[in-house]
Design the sequence.
């Protein structure tokens, strides 16, 4: 049994200690906004926050997060009101949308530590997250907008 | 908005009787989609109907959308077309998925009805049908208002969701009309001349936000992989590493002893492992040790096959299919003042949609009905394939459409859905089957590799008067010849041929399909001739290739956009190409730089001038084209798929590289030429020009040519030394 905080709720799950956090979140808990893309830490679709840091949940064993504070896309804001979520809509960023939970969570980490990133900082921070639809330039524009509009 | 995750089985008469408001039903006629009234539908046994537009007394208008959504925006743009002619208040429109019934919801495709969202067809093929359907609903609204007021319907006009009597200033909303209105037994005919003039469009051409986007920023968007059913178990499949081979035996007892494992299920060319959780199924899949029968693809080497293609191209005994023929190519070459010849190669490509292929299936208690949840580009053929696989009739299959985490052509075949249905039947429980990423690539269906031979004959004035294009590969008329025809140029004598070799490797449409490698060969060949003739490549197309008026327009537009003749910064160069796909024509320019130490090409800026007819959703269309451009750049600079001993050599995103943000062009400028023409396809027009434009820019930068795509660093380095 592993206990941790998921989107401000204390939860306990009975899963094999080696189970990737991704599957605990998606299948055991039922929050499906966090996505499976590669299962190898290569694409970033499964990105969540663990104690404020963006982490690949497919590469995180559930046993390693005992007592940790985990935030998924569902917990970023209660009503899509996070500046990044608003900016993502304003810039019409998502296409297929499958990678975008991970993109937004990765970008949220950036803005939390650096509210006014420049373009190069955005690119270097986001470069590990693949978008097969190629929405990269709109992601940059949306992060800049969120930074500007707060 | 609402998107019904599950389309409930409906009693047609029941739903017609039970709904408040007015229900317009859809019937198919020889002339395309036609609405019929609820009354006619309920009594017309021969007519298959389902509610298509519902107007509720509170003014909410429900429109069913047949636009399978993979990020291209069709889910929004198709009902928007109907809403335009209906003069619906778009803010009052909610969307629901249309059921997977092409006989009812399909567009007319030859003699058949088709819901297949492929080949950039959605807006192009549904446009007229949905406009007429929308206009019919509007006409009924107006007729009801006219009857209420006792005036001639011709004197009335509409504003969004309101009928207005200009003489008296009276107004009736569509909701008010729906509360008491009647839908006549025979719906009014609408002639094309009654459709709105372009200047009167309120929605078309105005860029309304896509309806799926808010769901995609907070985790609520439902993909098939997100579907959860009570009692559902999880499956993962291991397919024969050599495509198409049947499993002979596997370590069944060892697998079944693993924690959580429920069953193994033999598939025609693989083994599915079923477990209580997905991680257990995945873990068990990794332990499968199977022996496979031998098949056609055993021993296949993609590198060696390319060499074979070259020989096959000149093998007099090779079966040759004529793709296009004009004039007398043989005579043109015999009498030529100058001839050119060049060979080109192209490797396999993988779709790499971000959502690994998956589906959910559930059979009923009796085992004679199946429901599947699938992100599919073709719900109709998905239903047929699942039915065929289970030995069912199509009406025993219900397809519940889900959003797709990317499609790019891969998802018009629902082989993975048929597998989920087989597994669900075998274990008699609802099953979610998910291929791992490794499986998705190993068992992928690829854009075929191929060889191209190009030849041109020039007359004494330097005009291209003879043209030969031969393609060799696996994929036939379906996957190899698209884009070979060159109607946008005026070469009088042409011979365009295909020589096909089947390898047994799974191949499929891939965004832009054969246009990618065919335009690469055509447009770099033209660029090479222009350079050797000492003529600007645009001028060469105009003066020597007989470019049509439409072709000239797109080139003139892009030349202006990119300031084609202007000097570029040191280390930068431009390349140009035509783009053509699904009725659209475009010309594109890219600006590149090159790291000569690493062989890495970088695309910095892109300009594309597109003639795509009337653009229904300009901003969404631009985003779609940007996506196509990035797809092309990623493909031609980063993505190479090879097979050795019949097995795909790449396994995940560390060795099948997709372009990342740091390589995204700084600028993508897309302009639509003003046009009154019907919409043409836009989902792929952004891709096929990228390959030749980059190669042509590389020549202007280095004086060297690239003949083999993708332009991996080692090939670039080799070209620089050549």
Sequence:
């Amino acid at each position: 049994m592993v206990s941790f905080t998921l989107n401000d709720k204390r939860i306990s799950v009975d899963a094999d200690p080696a189970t990737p956090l991704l599957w605990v979140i998606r299948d055991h808990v039922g929050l499906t906004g966090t996505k499976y893309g590669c299962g190898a830490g290569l694409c970033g679709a499964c990105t969540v926050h663990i104690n404020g840091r963006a982490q690949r949940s497919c590469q995180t064993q559930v046993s390693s997060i005992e007592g940790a504070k985990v935030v998924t896309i569902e917990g970023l804001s209660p009503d899509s009101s996070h500046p990044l979520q608003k900016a993502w809509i304003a810039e019409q960023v998502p296409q297929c949308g499958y990678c975008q939970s991970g993109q937004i969570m990765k970008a949220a980490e950036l803005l939390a530590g650096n509210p006014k990133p420049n373009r190069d900082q955005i690119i270097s921070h986001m470069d590990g997250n693949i978008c097969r639809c190629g929405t990269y330039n709109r992601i940059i524009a949306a992060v800049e907008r969120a930074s500007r509009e707060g | 908005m609402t998107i019904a995750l599950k389309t409930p089985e409906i009693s047609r008469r029941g739903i017609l009787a039970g709904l408040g408001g007015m229900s317009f039903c859809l019937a198919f006629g020889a002339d395309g989609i036609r609405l019929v009234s609820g009354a006619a539908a309920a009594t017309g046994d021969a007519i298959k109907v389902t509610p298509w537009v519902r107007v509720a007394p509170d003014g909410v208008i429900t429109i069913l959308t047949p636009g399978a959504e993979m990020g291209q925006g069709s889910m929004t743009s198709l009902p928007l077309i109907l809403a335009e002619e209906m003069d619906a208040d778009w803010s009052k429109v909610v969307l629901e998925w249309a059921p997977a019934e092409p006989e009812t919801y399909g567009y007319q495709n030859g003699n058949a009805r088709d819901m297949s969202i492929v080949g950039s067809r959605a807006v192009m093929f549904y446009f007229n049908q949905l406009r007429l359907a929308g206009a019919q609903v509007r006409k009924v609204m107006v007729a009801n208002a006219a009857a209420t007021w006792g005036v001639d319907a011709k004197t009335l006009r509409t504003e969004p969701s309101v009928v207005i009597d200009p003489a008296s200033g009276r107004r009736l909303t569509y909701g008010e009309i729906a509360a008491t209105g009647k839908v006549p037994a025979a719906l009014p005919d609408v002639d094309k001349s009654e459709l709105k003039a372009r200047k009167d469009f309120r929605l078309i051409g105005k860029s309304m936000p896509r309806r799926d986007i808010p769901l995609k920023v907070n985790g609520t968007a439902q993909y098939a992989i997100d579907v959860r059913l009570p009692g559902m178990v999880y499956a993962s499949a291991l397919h024969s590493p050599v495509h198409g081979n049947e499993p002979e035996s596997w370590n069944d007892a060892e697998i079944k002893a693993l924690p959580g494992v429920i069953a193994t299920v033999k598939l025609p060319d693989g083994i599915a492992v079923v477990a209580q959780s997905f991680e257990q199924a995945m873990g068990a899949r990794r332990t499968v040790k199977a022996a496979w029968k031998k098949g056609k693809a055993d021993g296949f080497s993609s590198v060696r096959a390319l060499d074979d293609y070259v020989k096959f191209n000149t093998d007099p005994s090779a079966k040759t299919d004529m793709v296009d023929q004009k004039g007398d190519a043989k005579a043109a070459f015999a009498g030529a003042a100058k001839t050119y010849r060049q060979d080109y190669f192209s490797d396999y490509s993988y779709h790499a949609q971000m959502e690994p292929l998956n589906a959910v299936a559930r059979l009923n208690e009796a085992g004679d009905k199946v429901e599947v949840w699938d992100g599919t580009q073709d719900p109709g053929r998905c239903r047929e394939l699942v039915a065929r696989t289970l030995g069912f009739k199509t009406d025993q299959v219900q397809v519940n459409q889900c959003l797709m985490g990317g499609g790019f052509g891969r998802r018009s075949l629902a082989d993975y859905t048929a597998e989920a249905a087989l597994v669900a039947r075998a274990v008699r429980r609802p099953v979610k089957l998910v291929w791992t990423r490794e499986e998705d690539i190993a068992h992928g269906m690829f854009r075929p590799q191929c060889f191209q031979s190009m030849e041109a004959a020039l007359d004494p004035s330097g005009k291209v008067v003879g043209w030969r294009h031969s393609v060799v590969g696996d994929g036939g008329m379906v996957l190899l010849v698209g884009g070979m025809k060159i109607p946008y140029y005026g070469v009088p004598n042409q011979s365009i041929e295909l020589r096909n070799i089947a390898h047994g490797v799974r191949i499929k449409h891939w965004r832009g399909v054969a246009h990618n490698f065919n335009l690469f060969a055509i447009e770099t060949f033209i660029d090479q001739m222009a350079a050797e003739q000492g003529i600007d490549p645009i001028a060469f197309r105009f003066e020597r290739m007989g470019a049509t008026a439409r072709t000239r327009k797109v080139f003139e537009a892009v030349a202006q956009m990119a300031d084609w003749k202007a000097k570029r910064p040191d280390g930068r160069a431009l390349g140009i190409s035509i783009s053509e796909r699904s009725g659209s024509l475009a010309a594109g320019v890219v600006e590149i730089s090159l790291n000569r130490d690493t062989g890495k090409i970088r695309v910095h800026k892109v300009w594309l001038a597109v003639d795509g007819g009337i653009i229904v959703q300009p901003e969404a269309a631009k985003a779609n084209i940007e996506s196509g451009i990035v797809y092309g750049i990623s493909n031609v600079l980063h993505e190479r798929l090879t097979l050795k001993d019949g097995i795909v050599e790449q396994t995940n995103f560390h060795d099948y590289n997709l372009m990342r943000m740091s390589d995204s062009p700084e600028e993508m400028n897309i302009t639509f030429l003003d046009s009154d023409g019907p919409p043409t396809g836009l989902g792929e027009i952004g891709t096929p020009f990228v390959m030749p434009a980059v190669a042509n820019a590389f020549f202007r930068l280095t004086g060297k040519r690239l003949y083999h795509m993708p332009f991996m660093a080692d090939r670039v380095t080799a070209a620089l030394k050549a």
